[in-house]
């Protein structure tokens, strides 16, 4: 595998922001256009940036630093809280600190993986990025959170699964390094949704049956009348159906796979298919989803067998092989059924 390539990955998909940018309400349209412009600039400036160096030694403890951009765009900003320091008076900074810690705890305690690179990589996050910035992103080096516009999107540190999702892009960067387009890009987004959801479930002590399987619940603001989250792993395509946001376009089955040239080939859309497969597996196996299902996905991602341009079928077959090796044929058959349930062949 080639060295990890930093990729700009945001939680709010471009298709959502592009719709909002055409809205009749000038305030809605302006916030979306500003966010799209910032995202475009971030994508353009990240290509020559080297991946961050791991810690000098693995300690089994997080190394978090939170910065405040003070509604500017210079990164990382002013340091406001370091590892082990007391809480600040800024709830946003404290939520970011806690969310980085919750993600670190999942990877270490559930998988024995020290930070997102497995070698104790320091975790950095910047809050209060830009003005009314409607997104959060991983830029290959760190997390960045907008405050939202207060009407469509609230503070992006509120849902812990958003933090876990974005940091998991770093996990993918340092493990399978999946290319960010087409089916491999959709799998990149899928893996982030899986581990983002597992961060929330682990932090709340929820079993697969107790979890809501929503990504970004609590993020949508008062101007969104018909929406619960950005995505649903339980029922892709049902997270929102709103006059302002539009209709959630995620498919749950290969019969409805979306072929598009936008959003790097629909990476935020078609991720609904493998997302639903993971949900089907987790609920069939029962118990805690970070145990057998999460271990299968983690081992597949870190096993060195995936190509960077892996497609759905290849990824599915790899998870079946991992399940057989780690848990035996009965669990492998459950993985096959989950992929069959979304129309992905494992034969």
Strand content: 5-15%
Strand order of the largest sheet: 1-5-6-4-2-3
Radius of gyration: 19 Å
- Main sheet? 6 strands, mixed
Structural class, by secondary structure, is: alpha+beta
Q: Would you tell me the overall average pLDDT?
A: 94
* Shape call: globular
User: End-to-end span in angstroms?
Assistant: 26 Å
Order of helices and strands: EHHEEHEEEHHEEEEHHHHH
- Note poorly predicted spans: none
Helix content class: 40-55%
The count of DSSP E runs of length 2 or more, i.e. the number of strands, is 10
Give the count of helical stretches: 10
What does this structure look like?
With 347 residues, the chain is α+β, with helices and mostly antiparallel strands. Helix content is 43%, strand content 9%. The chain has a 6-stranded mixed β-sheet, with helices on one face. Strands 7-8 form a two-stranded antiparallel sheet. Strand 9 and strand 10 form a beta hairpin. Helix 3 (91-111) crosses helix 5, helix 5 (182-204) runs parallel beside helix 6 and helix 9 (312-327) packs antiparallel against helix 10. The longest helix is centred in the middle third of the chain and has 23 residues, at 182-204. It is globular and about 55 Å long. The chain starts with 8 loop residues before the first strand and ends in a 7-residue tail after the last helix.
Secondary-structure topology with pairs:
Layout: E1 9-10, H1 14-21, H2 26-45, E2 64-68, E3 78-82, H3 91-111, E4 123-127, E5 136-138, E6 143-145, H4 160-174, H5 182-204, E7 214-215, E8 231-232, E9 241-242, E10 246-247, H6 263-270, H7 272-285, H8 292-302, H9 312-327, H10 329-340
Parallel strand pairs: 2-4, 4-6
Antiparallel strand pairs: 1-5, 2-3, 5-6, 7-8, 9-10
Helix pairs in contact: 1-2, 3-4, 3-5, 4-5, 5-6, 5-7, 7-10, 8-9, 9-10
């Amino acid at each position: 595998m080639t060295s990890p390539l930093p990729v700009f990955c945001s939680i709010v998909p471009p298709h959502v922001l592009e719709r909002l940018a055409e809205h009749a309400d000038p305030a809605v349209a302006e916030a979306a256009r500003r966010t799209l412009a910032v995202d475009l600039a971030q994508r353009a400036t990240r290509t020559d940036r080297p991946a961050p160096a791991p810690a000098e030694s693995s300690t089994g403890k997080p190394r978090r630093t939170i910065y405040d951009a003070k509604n500017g765009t210079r990164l990382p900003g002013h340091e406001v809280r370091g590892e082990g320091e007391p809480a600040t008076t800024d709830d946003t900074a404290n939520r970011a600190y806690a969310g980085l810690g919750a993600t670190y705890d999942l990877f270490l305690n559930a998988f024995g993986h020290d930070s997102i690179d497995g070698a104790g990589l320091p975790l950095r996050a910047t809050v209060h990025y830009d003005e009314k910035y409607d997104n959060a992103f991983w830029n290959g080096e760190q997390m960045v959170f907008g405050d939202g516009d207060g009407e469509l999107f609230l503070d992006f540190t509120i849902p812990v699964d958003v933090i876990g999702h974005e940091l998991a892009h770093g996990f993918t960067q340092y493990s399978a390094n999946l290319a960010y387009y087409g089916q491999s890009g959709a799998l990149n987004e899928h893996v982030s949704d899986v581990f983002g959801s597992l961060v929330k479930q682990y932090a709340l002590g929820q079993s697969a049956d107790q979890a809501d399987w929503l990504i970004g619940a609590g993020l949508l603001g008062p101007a969104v009348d018909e929406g619960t989250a950005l995505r649903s792993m339980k029922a892709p395509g049902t997270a929102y159906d709103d006059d302002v946001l539009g209709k959630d376009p995620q498919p749950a089955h290969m019969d409805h796979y979306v072929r598009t040239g936008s959003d790097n080939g629909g990476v935020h859309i078609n991720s609904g298919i493998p997302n639903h497969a993971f949900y089907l597996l987790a609920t069939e196996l029962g118990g805690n989803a970070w145990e057998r299902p999460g271990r299968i996905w983690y081992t597949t991602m870190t096993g060195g067998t995936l190509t960077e341009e892996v497609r759905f079928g290849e990824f599915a077959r790899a998870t079946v092989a991992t399940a057989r090796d780690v848990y035996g044929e009965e669990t492998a058959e459950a993985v096959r059924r989950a992929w069959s349930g979304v129309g992905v062949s494992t034969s």
